Amino acid sequence: xxxxxNSARVFDQLADGYREKFMDLTLYDxxxxxFCELLPPGRARVLDAACGxxxxxxxxxxxxxxxxxxxxxxxxxMVELAREAVPSAQFAVQDCRHLSKFQQRFDGIICAFGxxxxxxAEVVTFIEAADAALGPSGVLYLSTLLGNxxxxxxxxxxxxxxxYINYHRExxxxxxxxxxxxxxVKQRRMASPSAASKATIDLIVIAKREVPRSM
Length: 215
Fold this sequence. Notes:
single chain; 34% helix; alpha/beta; 215 residues; Rossmann fold; seven-stranded mixed β-sheet
């Protein structure tokens, strides 16, 4: 089974309820602000991978209205809601697992809680593709649920549908980033929001290229 495609189908049904629960959540705003501050001044290009209903994009554009932001999500209803929430940005129904297909360079890529829906192998592919899509001194923001691989599995949603949740280890993610030449700017663990269906420990990592790419 393609677990990510199944998750997109379920979240397409749950999109409106997800927006109600998380659109105005401020728990992660400090980390989003730090991401913004690391971007170059002016019309920086940003990719919001697994953008959901546009909650992250809305915060980023409020902080930096001049951003050239593209949001991607595999659930069509999520993309519709994101377009409503942030009309100044662009959104498309696209699979962030296929990021390597994009012939674009970005100053920053943010993937807020998209990794729980990617297997460990897909996370490796995503980080490699994000690395290739980032320009010199690019910034990468990742957040996920902490846990061991054996903790991963199917979890029931309010609709009765099940989605496969992948838990990831902090040292695995940081090792992958360092292997790709990133410097770690921020690592933070925190408790999940009260609106979450299950209490977890969240991980936020912001990484940056200190050495520009050779042109």
